[in-house]
Amino acid sequence: SNLYIEDIHDEDARYGFNVGLYGQVLSSEVFALQPELLYSTKGSRAFYDGPFEQTIKYNLNYLDLPVLAVFKLGKSAEIQVGPYVSYLLNANVSYSGDIANGDDEIDKDQLKSYDYGIVGGFGMNFGNIQVGARYNCGLVKIADSDAAELFLGDSKNSVAQLYMSFNLMGNK
């Protein structure tokens, strides 16, 4: 995931994970509606350069609820697209550099408690296992205070995912 923070020297993605449950309703040979409930890690690592150098790793944990339209391309492939909403469960930062080193919890009042956006992806089915790739594009500026905006600017969540899912209910 990444936050695309403005006015910084360099930025790296934060590698994380998501885990959860999904199901398909209104399913046919060519279409399904797929609600999901996921625990997702998001954030970014930012390198601030200037008179002092500082690295800050933003660790954000969300409960995500995507609702995807699934377009089935035969039994082997799917295109998935739809909206998501998220609730911020907790957040912390790790920092190191010229100014300070350590870890701190972020007061949730500093960040928006919700996020929403769009999801698009592609999945390949191998029996009861699906592997795929998705992109989640957040539409909400996550900073919710002047102090948070100083570091995060107009940052929004941006997440690329590679995933493996298991269909525990049999064939789709």
Structure description:
The protein is mostly beta strands. Helix content is 4%, strand content 60%. The protein contains 1 helix and 9 strands; from the N terminus they run ββββββββαβ. Strands 1, 2, 3, 4, 5, 6, 7, 8 and 9 form a 9-stranded antiparallel β-sheet that branches. β5 (77-97) and β6 form a beta hairpin.
Secondary-structure topology with pairs:
Elements: E1 10-13, E2 18-22, E3 31-48, E4 54-73, E5 77-97, E6 102-105, E7 114-126, E8 129-138, H1 146-152, E9 158-166
Antiparallel strand pairs: 1-3, 2-3, 3-4, 4-5, 5-6, 5-7, 7-8, 8-9
Output the structural class.
mainly beta
Largest sheet: 9 strands, antiparallel
Roughly what is the average pLDDT, rounded to an integer?
90
Number of helical regions: 1
Topology order in helix (H) and strand (E) letters: EEEEEEEEHE
Beta strand %: over 45%
What's the count of strands?
A: 9
Contiguous runs where pLDDT drops below 50 for at least 5 residues: none
The percentage helix is: under 10%
How many whole angstroms does the radius of gyration measure? Answer: 18 Å
Rounded to the nearest angstrom, the distance between the terminal CA atoms is 30 Å
